[in-house]
Design a protein that fits this description.
Elements: H1 5-21, H2 26-33, H3 37-44, H4 54-64
Helix pairs in contact: 2-3, 2-4
């Protein structure tokens, strides 16, 4: 999994970014996506590398109103500060 560490980091950072952009807490997103808050916390945490299933990934994207590919795009550093 070391080869994919960059993608796990992007996934976690982008999930947190889009969650906050929609004004959702981890608990709020978890309730809407029908998964546990701990699961979202593990996905977002740097270094944990919790792998969501495609079903969960698609549910999270549906709640956040984004396409799955957006979770793997690098965003400019200052964009996360908005």
């Amino acid at each position: 999994m070391e080869d994919y560490a960059r993608y796990y980091k992007l996934l976690g950072e982008n999930l947190a970014y889009y969650r906050k952009k929609r004004h959702l807490t981890q608990e709020g997103l978890a309730l809407k996506a029908n998964i546990s808050r701990a699961h979202i916390s593990h996905i977002e945490a740097e270094g944990v590398h919790k792998v969501p299933s495609l079903d969960i990934l698609f549910r999270l994207c549906a709640v956040l109103c984004i396409e799955p590919y957006q979770l793997f795009l690098e965003r400019p550093q200052n964009e996360g500060e908005r």
